[in-house]
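Q: Can I see a sequence and its folded structure?
A: Here is a first one.
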Amino acid sequence: MAEEKKRTRRANGESAIYLGKDGRWHARVPMGYKDDGTLYRRHLTRPTRKELVDEVRRLEKQRDEGAARQPGKPWTVAKWLEHWVQNIAKPVVSENTYDGYEVAVRVHLVPGIGRHRIDRLEPEHLESLYRRMQSAGSKAGTAHQAHRTARTALGEAVRRGHAAKNAAALAKPPRMEEDENEVEPYSVDEVQSLLLEVNKRRNSARWMLALALGLRQGETLGLRWSDVDLANEYLKLRRNRLRPKYEHGCGEAAPCGRKAGYCPARVQVRRETKNTKSRAGRRAVPLPGPLVVMLRSHREAQAQERATARNLWTESEYVFTKPLGGPLSPNTDYHDWKRLLEDAGVRDGRLHDARHTAGTVLMLLGVPDRVIDQIMGWEPGGAARMRARYLHVTDPMLKEAARKISHAIWGAPENLAVDKDQDNEA
């Protein structure tokens, strides 16, 4: 026993195990270094030596794998999420991605699980949050957004040694029910009805770029005339229009009392466009002849608007602008789409459904997959998945497949007619 009690000098990387005067077994496990460079040791105590040795080995394994909590005061989930979203995520992700993270953190995650210590958060805490969100009226997709945000944030915490496990990676998010309102692309007749209506409006070519070529909203609103080559009948997609974001400009001394977006002295704090981040997104798209004609007419109409507005015109290089110049707001563009559907007598749908329509028409026309991927801007690695999501099998396609099956198995249509006549005679 005296031998067991004796404390021996060990190297800095080894754990010290000894029997204390209180009758319990103690250990000092080296875990790394503090901010000031001094060695950080975790103190453990257990009633028996075997229990202590087992715990020491578990902690040493975590340390060697880089999964152990680092020295310093443990983070709460709230503090970590707020730090992560502002200081780690914001500088490296797009504005839209940051907005999604920020809302999930502020509205759902911090109020729901923020008080837990990050190293003691369990999957069950997150699963309980998801159930509460849905009970309060949130859709499963909203809970999934919170889940993805938590998984990303906690994964970074694990990589930095603030937590041993990623509780969100272990948690089960709510089941995403099949969408009862599954996307149904617009038919050729509906597209033609829209075409008749868009010819009566400003920026008519804007809608046909969506319906014919599947351009995303940000890609279309971010187009500049330098991106459009009407002589060679193609356009280059290189940037996306971002949703504006404003801060108050009225000052604390005389606040306007309105939301920042409606402040008379509002200040825009987000850039207008960003470069397309993927190589597939930066692409050249061919322009059908009628669209070239529409764009030429649109450029002339815009020149006339500029001349009429004179000094009231806000100069910009955008293809699609407000009546007095300057870039179109995505929100205004969305409401214009809704009015277009209503005026054309076409069923309601999302603006993004126009993209589904364009992809399906390309497939219906027999355009090769590689060309569809180029026009739609899909990455080669995920193109098959995107085609499955965006390209819809229509009734004419099913009827054509049935005709081909009939021809292959029963022969030519005239043979079917002969066989039917023979059956009737019998």
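Q: Show me another, different protein.
A: A second, unrelated one:
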Amino acid sequence: MNPQHDHRRLGRELDLFDTDPLMGAGLPYWLPDGAVVRHELEKYVRQAERAAGYRHVYSPVLGKRELYEISGHWSHYSDDMFPPMKLGAEEVVLRPSLCPHHALIYRSRSHSYRELPLRMAELGGMYRSELSGVLGGLTRVRSIQLNDAHIFCTLEQAAGEARAALDLIRRAYADLGIRAARYRLSLPGEGGKYVADPELWRRATALLEEVLQGVPYDAVEGEAAFYGPKIDVQITDPAGRESTLSTVQIDFHQPERFDLHYIGADGAKHRPVMVHRSIIGSVERAVAHLVEEHGGAFPAWLAPVQLVVLPVADAQLDRAQEVVRQARARGLRAEAYGPGDGTLGARIRAARLVPYQAVIGEREAEGDEAAVRLRDGRRPGAVAVDGLLRRISDVVGARGAELWPAA
């Protein structure tokens, strides 16, 4: 990757996101083009999760302090949490994690072994009190939109569910053009950061080692979650800095803390295992990595503008706007850049990151055609407008990497 593809610079140049000191450090806002990328990424994740048998929920970003005392976050993770807020006689906290909320949702109804595995997913907000000195762009923020999920299952199902989650991560990376730098088995280290239950750690670690059979990985102490070990999928930025994007975790701790259970085939209560997994981690970090990976030249299905229509002269402006209308009717994101926006050459350069450019001169307007230029420099030539829009729709719908596949 090109070191010039720093997402902080490109994010502002391409009008994807920005910050304002009145909103606060580490609290970026999304501009319209960045919101498109985020929306498409979230839509992709939800579709992938539904296809894999997940059901989606919504839960509040606030919780009582007592909730996080039960989960263990307050005693093991409070340095990364925002201070409690007084609400009458109660104290509420901006949540640092979604898992306690999902545990309560599971606990709110009785469950039979026949329902398991129960896969619960949410794209939800959470907040972490990061120090100002480590904040930067979208990779270290205080307000996080997390692609999170929790699978409640039997002990016998846990390894298979974790393995399936890892497969889901691999498929998403292939679709998004993300390369995993390495897999890391994150284990506990020294100190009181971790739950003191050696048997818990031994059982969870053994299951994750089973999941990683045949997968090259590094075991690293001191990187586990406070409640259990995890598989971290590591990525690198243009400067070679490594970070975690996706995770799979096995948790025996929170089912115990929240007294979760299901009714087994024997009619007795049994404790479920809780598998935590995130396909793309935080939306913020995923978008930052995609910006840097693609240099702002997103795959066609993710691009903020997928087609730009360029009339050569004012006489073709109405025709160009009609092509834009047809494209939008097909669900494509299209814009017309007319002569008022500069010379044809200047407009072509301004749209250099748009996957498809359709130039319409006098001849093309008369023949209901467009002279097609692709972002990669290829020029397929004059193509019937209906055929062009159909081809773009097919590429976008298939989330294809090839802009102009052979017919």
